[in-house]
Amino acid sequence: MTAPLHDTHAAGPGRALPDTQQGMRRRNLARVLHAVSAEGPLSRAAVASRIGLTRAAVSSLVDELIRSGLLEELGPERPGRVGRPGSALAVSGHGPAGIGAEIGVDHLAVCAVDLRGQVRARAERHVANRGRAPGPVIGELTELVHRVVAEAQGEGLWPAGLAVAVPGLVARDARTVVRAPNLDWHDIDLGALLPSAYPLTVDNEANFGALAELWLGDATPHDFLHVSAEIGIGAALVVAGGLLRGTRGFAGELGHVPVQPEGPLCPCGGRGCLEQYAGEEAVLRAAGLAPGEDRVGLLAGRAADGDEAVRRALREAGAALGVALTGAVNLLDPESVVLGGALSGLAPWLLPALEAELDRRTAGPACPVSVSRLGPEGPLLGAAHSVVRAVLDDPAAVAERA
Amino acid sequence: MTAPLHDTHAAGPGRALPDTQQGMRRRNLARVLHAVSAEGPLSRAAVASRIGLTRAAVSSLVDELIRSGLLEELGPERPGRVGRPGSALAVSGHGPAGIGAEIGVDHLAVCAVDLRGQVRARAERHVANRGRAPGPVIGELTELVHRVVAEAQGEGLWPAGLAVAVPGLVARDARTVVRAPNLDWHDIDLGALLPSAYPLTVDNEANFGALAELWLGDATPHDFLHVSAEIGIGAALVVAGGLLRGTRGFAGELGHVPVQPEGPLCPCGGRGCLEQYAGEEAVLRAAGLAPGEDRVGLLAGRAADGDEAVRRALREAGAALGVALTGAVNLLDPESVVLGGALSGLAPWLLPALEAELDRRTAGPACPVSVSRLGPEGPLLGAAHSVVRAVLDDPAAVAERA
Prior knowledge:
Two copies of one chain form a homodimer. Chain A has twelve helices and 15 strands. Mean pLDDT of chain A is 88; it is low at 1-15. Chain A folds into three domains: 5-91, Winged helix-like DNA-binding domain superfamily/Winged helix DNA-binding domain (Arc Repressor Mutant, subunit A), CATH 1.10.10; 96-210 and 379-401, 2-Layer Sandwich (Nucleotidyltransferase, domain 5); 218-373, Nucleotidyltransferase, domain 5, CATH 3.30.420.40. In chain A, helix 1 crosses helix 2 (44-51) and helix 9 packs across helix 10. Chain A is α/β, with parallel strands linked by helices. Chains A, B: It holds the Pfam family ROK. Chains A, B: Residues 1-23 are annotated as: Disordered. Chains A, B: Residues 30-81 form the HTH marR-type domain. Chains A, B: This is ROK family transcriptional regulator. Chains A, B: It comes from Streptomyces aquilus.
């Protein structure tokens, strides 16, 4: 499974499946599973009325989904209704699980999410990955994956796929890290290093963060620009509920938008890139602090304590973000901008200057900016949920592997 | 017909039509017409083999398209082939025509394009429209439309629709000009001012220019950023062969991307917007020339004559375009950038500085930049062709009106 799983969601349940009798059954399996996932517990009759199929057709589809371990029966519905009591159906809490993983500049994290969207196992390790060779990093990540999979299996779940978020550009093959400057990785085929037991998808952390926001956020629109940051600053563009990936898969490099054409040289080769003003290390430098672990925690703590140098540095970072986002909003006309990832923890000090720049530079009503509720967990959750979404979108494919 | 006609093309011939017996016939009419349009003249048998329908089915569809005046028979094919000679089919040169119109800051233009893509009538008037009320401008444009339609009718064509390119932001209703700063128009419903005899589509000139490039350009990719300019600088993003319009239809405002955050104030409310460095009037100012008509001709003439002040002004404009495009390329990862509209006439002097900025600011291979062969005719041709494309995409809808 080399295609990015989560993109299929943009087309709706099972839309990409072939237009044959068998394809139609696969699409209908997806419609049943999506209906129960979105509104369950539901009886067979309620599913039939929601998706417009006969009760008999739905029963046959439900039976197949129960056999595959994707749906389960909760027992008879409460009495007091007209007719013979039906059994309520729910998405299985013991079937396939999405395994999400995140490679950060100074941490590794893995989690398992069940079909109900619950995180059932999680492991994390703080480790300085910058400049480390990919082999040992992926070795440690694989240990965490095995630990999380074992824990999930102990609860009756089985891994339906592994999705890995990386702080860098990923090729459209969804496994090759083309460039991750803050790890110092170039052209690394993660598919060759990760366990081959599960279908694999590798994607940029900003993309997974945006998908998490789309799927799990509160009333997130279907057209938005998601900005996230660790040391680098990435963005992801969601258009009509799908990711805009660009020709090579490199869209969203907000961190290298020039905000001061003759500003400081950036490792990317440019000058005055946003990252030179609003990246975590640039902010630490401007505040006179040494880089280390938990940079966001340090900055947030000092800012909350009223440290004026830190607050000024964050204001300047917010203003630089506002300039870069003015350009992005002029080009893309999104419905909103969402600040996610590590940035969300600094929002109280970044937002006022960011919004002031956006307001004064925008004719008409400025684009609204909100802060992600998911915060730094976004990319990891987006990765795990992308696997879950793929199961909901084509349950038959999973049943074949079960 | 308020929906933007041309967007339907992104989905392919007739894809948006309903999934019924009648819908299937409408889709098949479109497939026949597209096949003849793309590869004709073709016999019925050749059409059948190209689109995978039986000869009998194709004959019935062809008969309907001939009755509607969309196809015509050229007479028996040349002998020497096996079997009974068939009659070659061609797209009609006497059926519906697309009427394109352009409202420029100092010109009005209208043309009629037949189903074969040939311009069959054209009228243009040089007139200073800046600050003029919409009523008189549209009155003059309507005169030109009537003149072009009469000329087309004299050749046996009839107008299938009118598409109007404007230098401003157009609402998603495809008839309201929300803001055209260089005309000083705000919230003008062109639908109420233009003749109601034809289905109407109003769109931004950069969007029509990009569609012309997509449909008529030499080997244009399906993902590109099209930059065009008159006094304003607009861009249009083509993604997977369709326009990215933005939430309100305002995407592509490259002219208001900040290139010097503390640069000169722009009428949009921003500071240091690209238009302040690379708009035609900014370039004239930097070159010490007075604004007037035919600004591009003046600049190109002086530059060709070796006027160093003009060449320097164009180099600086090219560099500013390079900075703004670096940001756009980082955000969107297009396959290429195409310079169109009036800008294309200045490309020899803009391009070197533009490409130098893009190269030095981009890690890895820079995004290729090309110059549109259509030049300033792009928006007008794109408008007329959008009507022709709508006919090819759903011939049954036109036949109903014929």
